[in-house]
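Quick one, C-alpha coordinates below. Sequence please?
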Protein backbone atom coordinates (compact mmCIF):
# COMPACT_ATOMS: atom_id res chain seq x y z
CA UNK A 1 0.00 0.00 0.00
CA UNK A 2 1.32 3.44 -0.98
CA UNK A 3 0.87 5.75 2.02
CA UNK A 4 1.55 9.39 1.27
CA UNK A 5 3.17 11.61 3.86
CA UNK A 6 0.90 14.39 5.12
CA UNK A 7 1.33 17.73 3.40
CA UNK A 8 3.23 20.39 5.39
CA UNK A 9 1.00 22.71 7.37
CA UNK A 10 0.45 26.27 6.17
CA UNK A 11 0.39 29.31 8.43
CA UNK A 12 -3.42 29.34 8.50
CA UNK A 13 -3.41 25.77 9.83
CA UNK A 14 -1.75 26.99 13.02
CA UNK A 15 -4.59 29.44 13.77
CA UNK A 16 -7.48 28.29 15.94
CA UNK A 17 -11.14 29.09 15.38
CA UNK A 18 -11.11 31.50 18.33
CA UNK A 19 -11.08 35.09 17.10
CA UNK A 20 -8.70 37.58 18.78
CA UNK A 21 -10.29 40.22 21.00
CA UNK A 22 -7.45 42.74 20.84
CA UNK A 23 -8.23 46.36 20.05
CA UNK A 24 -8.29 47.18 16.33
CA UNK A 25 -4.85 48.42 15.38
CA UNK A 26 -3.07 46.41 18.10
CA UNK A 27 0.35 45.20 17.02
CA UNK A 28 -0.32 41.76 18.49
CA UNK A 29 -2.39 40.78 15.44
CA UNK A 30 0.75 40.98 13.31
CA UNK A 31 2.80 39.13 15.93
CA UNK A 32 0.30 36.27 15.79
CA UNK A 33 0.64 36.26 12.00
CA UNK A 34 4.44 36.19 12.26
CA UNK A 35 4.31 33.31 14.73
CA UNK A 36 2.06 31.13 12.55
CA UNK A 37 4.24 31.84 9.51
CA UNK A 38 7.32 30.82 11.49
CA UNK A 39 5.72 27.56 12.66
CA UNK A 40 4.80 26.71 9.07
CA UNK A 41 8.26 27.65 7.77
CA UNK A 42 9.89 25.31 10.30
CA UNK A 43 7.60 22.46 9.27
CA UNK A 44 6.47 21.91 12.85
CA UNK A 45 3.52 19.72 13.78
CA UNK A 46 0.73 20.72 16.14
CA UNK A 47 1.15 17.75 18.46
CA UNK A 48 4.88 18.45 18.95
CA UNK A 49 4.55 22.19 19.61
CA UNK A 50 3.45 23.87 22.84
CA UNK A 51 2.64 27.51 23.62
CA UNK A 52 2.78 28.78 27.20
CA UNK A 53 1.71 32.22 28.42
CA UNK A 54 0.89 34.19 31.54
CA UNK A 55 -1.55 37.09 31.90
CA UNK A 56 -2.08 40.12 29.67
CA UNK A 57 -3.23 41.06 26.18
CA UNK A 58 -0.32 39.28 24.49
CA UNK A 59 -0.71 36.21 26.69
CA UNK A 60 -3.95 35.36 24.89
CA UNK A 61 -1.95 34.09 21.92
CA UNK A 62 -2.03 30.36 22.85
CA UNK A 63 -5.82 30.40 22.49
CA UNK A 64 -5.52 31.79 18.99
CA UNK A 65 -3.18 29.02 17.81
CA UNK A 66 -4.05 25.38 17.15
CA UNK A 67 -1.04 23.85 18.93
CA UNK A 68 -1.05 22.69 22.54
CA UNK A 69 -1.39 25.67 24.86
CA UNK A 70 -1.19 26.53 28.55
CA UNK A 71 -2.55 29.88 29.75
CA UNK A 72 -0.99 30.17 33.19
CA UNK A 73 -0.98 32.65 36.05
CA UNK A 74 0.62 36.06 36.06
CA UNK A 75 4.40 36.03 35.61
CA UNK A 76 4.86 32.26 35.88
CA UNK A 77 4.92 31.27 32.22
CA UNK A 78 8.69 30.71 32.07
CA UNK A 79 8.63 28.50 35.15
CA UNK A 80 5.86 26.39 33.62
CA UNK A 81 7.61 26.24 30.25
CA UNK A 82 10.90 25.22 31.87
CA UNK A 83 9.21 22.30 33.60
CA UNK A 84 7.48 21.27 30.39
CA UNK A 85 10.71 21.33 28.37
CA UNK A 86 12.58 19.35 31.01
CA UNK A 87 9.84 16.71 31.13
CA UNK A 88 9.25 16.64 27.36
CA UNK A 89 12.48 17.67 25.60
CA UNK A 90 11.03 16.40 22.32
CA UNK A 91 8.57 19.31 22.21
CA UNK A 92 9.16 22.73 20.69
CA UNK A 93 8.22 25.03 23.57
CA UNK A 94 7.43 28.69 22.91
CA UNK A 95 6.47 31.28 25.50
CA UNK A 96 4.46 34.43 24.80
CA UNK A 97 3.97 37.41 27.08
CA UNK A 98 4.16 41.13 27.56
CA UNK A 99 6.51 43.56 29.24
CA UNK A 100 4.45 43.63 32.43
CA UNK A 101 4.02 39.87 32.71
CA UNK A 102 7.65 39.16 31.84
CA UNK A 103 9.66 41.88 33.54
CA UNK A 104 7.53 42.83 36.57
CA UNK A 105 5.77 40.01 38.41
CA UNK A 106 7.68 37.51 36.24
CA UNK A 107 11.01 39.30 36.47
CA UNK A 108 12.56 36.78 38.83
CA UNK A 109 11.68 33.86 36.56
CA UNK A 110 13.03 35.78 33.56
CA UNK A 111 16.45 36.23 35.18
CA UNK A 112 16.79 32.55 36.01
CA UNK A 113 15.42 31.35 32.67
CA UNK A 114 18.22 33.30 30.97
CA UNK A 115 20.74 31.92 33.46
CA UNK A 116 19.63 28.28 33.07
CA UNK A 117 19.66 28.54 29.26
CA UNK A 118 16.94 25.93 28.81
CA UNK A 119 16.00 25.42 25.16
CA UNK A 120 12.99 27.79 25.06
CA UNK A 121 11.91 30.67 22.84
CA UNK A 122 10.42 33.67 24.66
CA UNK A 123 8.48 36.16 22.52
CA UNK A 124 7.79 39.35 24.48
CA UNK A 125 5.37 41.89 23.02
CA UNK A 126 6.65 45.13 24.49
CA UNK A 127 4.30 48.12 24.31
CA UNK A 128 5.66 49.88 27.40
CA UNK A 129 2.28 49.91 29.13
CA UNK A 130 -0.18 47.67 30.96
CA UNK A 131 -2.87 47.66 28.27
CA UNK A 132 -5.35 45.13 29.64
CA UNK A 133 -5.66 46.96 32.96
CA UNK A 134 -6.31 50.37 31.41
CA UNK A 135 -2.94 51.89 30.74
CA UNK A 136 -0.63 52.22 33.72
CA UNK A 137 3.17 52.34 33.42
CA UNK A 138 5.03 49.04 32.99
CA UNK A 139 8.67 48.12 33.72
CA UNK A 140 9.72 49.27 30.24
CA UNK A 141 7.79 52.58 30.29
CA UNK A 142 9.83 55.73 29.78
CA UNK A 143 10.50 57.52 33.08
CA UNK A 144 8.80 60.73 31.89
CA UNK A 145 5.64 59.21 30.38
CA UNK A 146 2.87 61.10 32.18
CA UNK A 147 -0.34 59.99 30.43
CA UNK A 148 -1.45 57.60 33.19
CA UNK A 149 -3.60 58.83 36.08
CA UNK A 150 -1.55 56.59 38.39
CA UNK A 151 1.70 58.35 37.46
CA UNK A 152 0.67 61.83 36.28
CA UNK A 153 4.26 63.06 36.48
CA UNK A 154 5.74 59.90 34.98
CA UNK A 155 6.95 56.75 36.76
CA UNK A 156 10.25 58.48 37.50
CA UNK A 157 12.32 55.28 37.44
CA UNK A 158 14.79 53.91 34.92
CA UNK A 159 13.02 51.55 32.50
CA UNK A 160 14.09 47.94 32.11
CA UNK A 161 16.00 47.28 28.87
CA UNK A 162 15.21 43.63 28.10
CA UNK A 163 18.10 42.83 25.76
CA UNK A 164 20.71 44.22 28.15
CA UNK A 165 19.19 42.34 31.08
CA UNK A 166 18.96 39.07 29.16
CA UNK A 167 22.55 39.34 27.92
CA UNK A 168 23.84 39.96 31.44
CA UNK A 169 21.96 36.90 32.72
CA UNK A 170 23.18 34.51 30.03
CA UNK A 171 20.52 34.24 27.33
CA UNK A 172 21.89 32.53 24.23
CA UNK A 173 19.96 34.32 21.45
CA UNK A 174 18.80 37.95 21.44
CA UNK A 175 16.76 39.68 18.76
CA UNK A 176 14.39 42.61 18.43
CA UNK A 177 11.55 42.79 15.93
CA UNK A 178 8.64 45.06 15.10
CA UNK A 179 4.99 44.10 14.69
CA UNK A 180 4.85 46.40 11.66
CA UNK A 181 7.20 43.99 9.87
CA UNK A 182 5.61 40.55 10.43
CA UNK A 183 7.60 38.87 7.66
CA UNK A 184 10.89 40.08 9.10
CA UNK A 185 9.69 39.14 12.57
CA UNK A 186 8.86 35.60 11.42
CA UNK A 187 12.51 35.21 10.39
CA UNK A 188 13.68 36.23 13.86
CA UNK A 189 11.28 33.72 15.41
CA UNK A 190 12.43 30.92 13.09
CA UNK A 191 16.07 31.51 13.95
CA UNK A 192 15.27 31.86 17.66
CA UNK A 193 13.48 28.51 17.73
CA UNK A 194 16.31 26.83 15.82
CA UNK A 195 19.05 28.25 18.03
CA UNK A 196 19.91 26.08 21.08
CA UNK A 197 19.38 27.53 24.52
CA UNK A 198 17.20 30.36 25.78
CA UNK A 199 16.10 32.74 23.03
CA UNK A 200 14.58 36.16 23.71
CA UNK A 201 12.76 38.00 20.95
CA UNK A 202 11.67 41.46 22.05
CA UNK A 203 8.86 42.65 19.80
CA UNK A 204 7.97 46.34 19.67
CA UNK A 205 4.18 45.98 19.45
CA UNK A 206 2.28 49.29 19.71
CA UNK A 207 -0.71 49.78 22.01
CA UNK A 208 -2.72 52.22 19.92
CA UNK A 209 -5.46 52.53 22.55
CA UNK A 210 -3.50 53.70 25.60
CA UNK A 211 -0.37 54.87 23.82
CA UNK A 212 -1.57 56.17 20.45
CA UNK A 213 1.74 58.01 19.94
CA UNK A 214 3.30 54.59 19.32
CA UNK A 215 1.78 54.66 15.83
CA UNK A 216 4.94 56.65 15.03
CA UNK A 217 7.15 53.64 15.83
CA UNK A 218 6.97 52.71 12.15
CA UNK A 219 9.17 55.74 11.45
CA UNK A 220 11.38 55.19 14.52
CA UNK A 221 12.45 51.57 13.95
CA UNK A 222 15.49 50.86 11.79
CA UNK A 223 17.84 48.04 10.86
CA UNK A 224 21.16 47.78 12.66
CA UNK A 225 21.57 44.33 14.19
CA UNK A 226 22.63 43.04 10.78
CA UNK A 227 25.47 40.68 11.68
CA UNK A 228 24.79 38.73 14.88
CA UNK A 229 27.81 38.38 17.12
CA UNK A 230 28.69 35.35 19.23
CA UNK A 231 30.79 37.47 21.61
CA UNK A 232 28.78 38.74 24.62
CA UNK A 233 31.26 41.58 25.13
CA UNK A 234 30.72 42.80 21.58
CA UNK A 235 26.95 42.50 22.06
CA UNK A 236 27.21 44.62 25.21
CA UNK A 237 29.21 47.24 23.32
CA UNK A 238 26.58 47.39 20.58
CA UNK A 239 23.79 47.76 23.14
CA UNK A 240 25.67 50.66 24.69
CA UNK A 241 24.83 52.70 21.58
CA UNK A 242 21.36 51.24 21.05
CA UNK A 243 18.34 53.58 20.90
CA UNK A 244 15.90 50.72 21.67
CA UNK A 245 14.51 50.84 18.12
CA UNK A 246 17.23 48.82 16.34
CA UNK A 247 15.88 45.66 14.69
CA UNK A 248 17.47 42.32 13.84
CA UNK A 249 19.45 39.54 15.49
CA UNK A 250 21.94 40.99 17.97
CA UNK A 251 23.51 37.93 19.55
CA UNK A 252 23.74 34.19 18.86
CA UNK A 253 25.86 32.64 21.58
CA UNK A 254 27.48 29.24 21.81
CA UNK A 255 26.80 28.42 25.46
CA UNK A 256 25.50 24.83 25.79
CA UNK A 257 21.81 24.66 26.63
CA UNK A 258 20.61 23.03 29.82
CA UNK A 259 18.75 19.89 28.83
CA UNK A 260 18.15 16.30 29.80
CA UNK A 261 17.52 15.08 26.26
CA UNK A 262 20.02 12.72 24.63
CA UNK A 263 19.24 13.92 21.14
CA UNK A 264 21.35 16.63 19.59
CA UNK A 265 19.88 20.08 19.27
CA UNK A 266 19.67 21.27 15.69
CA UNK A 267 22.29 23.91 15.04
CA UNK A 268 21.27 27.34 13.89
CA UNK A 269 21.84 27.94 10.21
CA UNK A 270 21.76 30.96 7.98
CA UNK A 271 21.69 33.50 10.80
CA UNK A 272 23.30 36.12 8.62
CA UNK A 273 20.76 35.95 5.81
CA UNK A 274 19.40 39.47 5.47
CA UNK A 275 16.27 40.95 3.98
CA UNK A 276 16.14 41.00 0.20
CA UNK A 277 15.48 44.36 -1.39
CA UNK A 278 13.56 45.17 -4.54
CA UNK A 279 16.38 45.04 -7.11
CA UNK A 280 14.49 43.67 -10.09
CA UNK A 281 12.59 40.46 -10.71
CA UNK A 282 13.75 38.51 -13.73
CA UNK A 283 12.16 35.09 -13.28
CA UNK A 284 8.53 34.59 -14.29
CA UNK A 285 7.85 31.88 -11.70
CA UNK A 286 9.29 34.07 -8.94
CA UNK A 287 7.15 36.98 -10.10
CA UNK A 288 4.02 34.81 -10.02
CA UNK A 289 4.90 33.74 -6.47
CA UNK A 290 4.92 37.41 -5.51
CA UNK A 291 1.67 38.13 -7.36
CA UNK A 292 -0.07 35.28 -5.53
CA UNK A 293 1.32 36.44 -2.19
CA UNK A 294 0.03 39.98 -2.82
CA UNK A 295 -3.53 38.66 -2.96
CA UNK A 296 -3.30 35.89 -0.35
CA UNK A 297 -1.73 38.18 2.24
CA UNK A 298 -4.26 40.91 1.47
CA UNK A 299 -7.11 38.43 2.00
CA UNK A 300 -5.59 37.23 5.27
CA UNK A 301 -5.18 40.80 6.53
CA UNK A 302 -8.73 41.78 5.54
CA UNK A 303 -10.04 38.68 7.36
CA UNK A 304 -8.13 39.71 10.47
CA UNK A 305 -9.49 43.25 10.25
CA UNK A 306 -13.03 41.91 9.78
CA UNK A 307 -12.70 39.70 12.86
CA UNK A 308 -11.35 42.63 14.83
CA UNK A 309 -14.30 44.82 13.84
CA UNK A 310 -16.84 42.09 14.65
CA UNK A 311 -15.28 41.64 18.09
CA UNK A 312 -16.05 45.30 18.75
CA UNK A 313 -19.55 45.16 17.21
CA UNK A 314 -18.65 47.20 14.13
CA UNK A 315 -20.52 44.91 11.73
CA UNK A 316 -20.83 47.42 8.89
CA UNK A 317 -17.07 47.80 8.55
CA UNK A 318 -16.49 44.09 9.22
CA UNK A 319 -18.74 43.16 6.30
CA UNK A 320 -16.85 45.56 4.05
CA UNK A 321 -13.49 44.02 5.01
CA UNK A 322 -14.94 40.54 4.35
CA UNK A 323 -15.95 41.72 0.89
CA UNK A 324 -12.43 42.99 0.24
CA UNK A 325 -11.04 39.62 1.37
CA UNK A 326 -13.24 37.82 -1.15
CA UNK A 327 -12.09 40.18 -3.90
CA UNK A 328 -8.47 39.36 -3.05
CA UNK A 329 -9.12 35.61 -3.11
CA UNK A 330 -10.81 35.99 -6.50
CA UNK A 331 -7.79 37.89 -7.82
CA UNK A 332 -5.49 35.16 -6.43
CA UNK A 333 -7.44 32.54 -8.39
CA UNK A 334 -6.99 34.64 -11.53
CA UNK A 335 -3.23 34.81 -10.95
CA UNK A 336 -3.12 31.03 -10.39
CA UNK A 337 -4.95 30.49 -13.67
CA UNK A 338 -2.41 32.70 -15.44
CA UNK A 339 0.42 30.58 -14.05
CA UNK A 340 -0.90 27.55 -15.93
CA UNK A 341 1.70 24.78 -15.82
CA UNK A 342 4.45 26.99 -14.42
CA UNK A 343 5.71 25.63 -11.10
CA UNK A 344 5.43 28.55 -8.70
CA UNK A 345 8.17 28.39 -6.03
CA UNK A 346 7.44 28.51 -2.32
CA UNK A 347 9.25 31.42 -0.67
CA UNK A 348 9.85 31.98 3.03
CA UNK A 349 8.07 35.11 4.33
CA UNK A 350 11.31 37.10 4.50
CA UNK A 351 12.48 36.03 1.03
CA UNK A 352 9.94 38.12 -0.83
CA UNK A 353 11.30 41.17 -2.63
CA UNK A 354 8.75 43.65 -1.35
CA UNK A 355 9.58 47.37 -1.59
CA UNK A 356 8.56 47.65 2.08
CA UNK A 357 8.29 45.20 4.94
CA UNK A 358 5.04 43.53 3.79
CA UNK A 359 3.14 42.67 0.65
CA UNK A 360 1.95 45.96 -0.86
CA UNK A 361 -1.77 45.23 -0.45
CA UNK A 362 -1.57 44.16 3.21
CA UNK A 363 -3.35 46.94 5.09
CA UNK A 364 -1.45 48.29 8.07
CA UNK A 365 -3.24 47.24 11.26
CA UNK A 366 -2.19 50.40 13.09
CA UNK A 367 -4.40 52.44 10.75
CA UNK A 368 -7.58 50.85 12.16
CA UNK A 369 -9.80 51.92 15.03
CA UNK A 370 -12.79 50.21 16.62
CA UNK A 371 -14.99 53.25 15.81
CA UNK A 372 -13.85 53.53 12.20
CA UNK A 373 -16.45 53.92 9.45
CA UNK A 374 -16.84 52.48 5.93
CA UNK A 375 -15.14 55.65 4.67
CA UNK A 376 -11.99 54.68 6.58
CA UNK A 377 -12.17 51.06 5.38
CA UNK A 378 -12.43 52.17 1.76
CA UNK A 379 -9.54 54.58 2.26
CA UNK A 380 -7.38 51.71 3.57
CA UNK A 381 -8.36 49.50 0.61
CA UNK A 382 -7.65 52.34 -1.82
CA UNK A 383 -4.15 52.85 -0.39
CA UNK A 384 -3.53 49.11 -0.67
CA UNK A 385 -4.54 49.01 -4.33
CA UNK A 386 -2.38 52.04 -5.12
CA UNK A 387 0.61 50.29 -3.52
CA UNK A 388 -0.18 47.16 -5.54
CA UNK A 389 -0.28 49.17 -8.75
CA UNK A 390 3.03 50.84 -7.90
CA UNK A 391 4.62 47.46 -7.13
CA UNK A 392 3.68 45.96 -10.49
CA UNK A 393 4.67 49.14 -12.32
CA UNK A 394 8.09 49.00 -10.65
CA UNK A 395 8.58 45.38 -11.71
CA UNK A 396 7.54 46.28 -15.26
CA UNK A 397 10.19 49.00 -15.31
CA UNK A 398 13.06 47.10 -13.68
CA UNK A 399 12.78 43.49 -14.88
CA UNK A 400 15.20 42.28 -17.53
CA UNK A 401 12.78 39.53 -18.58
CA UNK A 402 10.39 40.54 -21.37
CA UNK A 403 7.70 38.05 -20.25
CA UNK A 404 7.85 39.38 -16.69
CA UNK A 405 7.67 42.98 -17.91
CA UNK A 406 4.61 42.21 -20.04
CA UNK A 407 2.80 40.35 -17.26
CA UNK A 408 3.64 42.99 -14.67
CA UNK A 409 2.35 45.71 -17.00
CA UNK A 410 -0.95 43.83 -17.41
CA UNK A 411 -1.31 43.47 -13.65
CA UNK A 412 -0.45 47.12 -13.07
CA UNK A 413 -3.23 48.07 -15.49
CA UNK A 414 -5.67 45.80 -13.65
CA UNK A 415 -4.70 47.36 -10.33
CA UNK A 416 -5.32 50.78 -11.89
CA UNK A 417 -8.87 49.63 -12.67
CA UNK A 418 -9.31 48.55 -9.04
CA UNK A 419 -8.11 51.99 -7.92
CA UNK A 420 -10.62 53.68 -10.22
CA UNK A 421 -13.44 51.48 -8.90
CA UNK A 422 -12.67 52.29 -5.26
CA UNK A 423 -12.45 55.99 -6.04
CA UNK A 424 -15.96 55.76 -7.51
CA UNK A 425 -17.18 54.00 -4.36
CA UNK A 426 -15.66 56.45 -1.91
CA UNK A 427 -18.19 59.30 -2.40
CA UNK A 428 -20.99 56.94 -1.34
CA UNK A 429 -19.76 57.22 2.24
CA UNK A 430 -19.44 60.65 3.88
CA UNK A 431 -16.17 61.56 5.53
CA UNK A 432 -16.80 61.54 9.31
CA UNK A 433 -16.55 64.74 11.29
CA UNK A 434 -13.59 65.60 13.50
CA UNK A 435 -13.72 63.73 16.80
CA UNK A 436 -15.22 60.55 15.35
CA UNK A 437 -12.69 58.47 17.32
CA UNK A 438 -13.32 60.06 20.72
CA UNK A 439 -14.56 57.58 23.30
CA UNK A 440 -14.28 58.25 27.02
CA UNK A 441 -14.98 54.60 27.80
CA UNK A 442 -12.30 52.67 25.93
CA UNK A 443 -12.81 49.22 24.41
CA UNK A 444 -13.07 46.15 26.57
CA UNK A 445 -13.98 42.62 25.64
CA UNK A 446 -14.50 39.44 27.65
CA UNK A 447 -12.32 36.47 26.78
Amino acid sequence: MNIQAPAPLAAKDFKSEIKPVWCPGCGDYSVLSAITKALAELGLTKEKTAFVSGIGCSSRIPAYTSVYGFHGVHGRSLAIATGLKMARPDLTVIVAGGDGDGFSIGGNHFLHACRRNVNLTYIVMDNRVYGMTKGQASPTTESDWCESDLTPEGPGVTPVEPLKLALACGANYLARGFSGDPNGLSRLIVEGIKHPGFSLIQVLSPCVTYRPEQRDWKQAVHAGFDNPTSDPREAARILGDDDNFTLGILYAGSRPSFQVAKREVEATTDLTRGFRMMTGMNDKAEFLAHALAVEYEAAERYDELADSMMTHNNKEVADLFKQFAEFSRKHAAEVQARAGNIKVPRLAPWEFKWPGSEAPESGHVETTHYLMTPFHALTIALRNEVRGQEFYAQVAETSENEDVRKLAKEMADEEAEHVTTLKRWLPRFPKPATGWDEDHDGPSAAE
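The radius of gyration is 22 Å. The longest strand covers residues 92-98.
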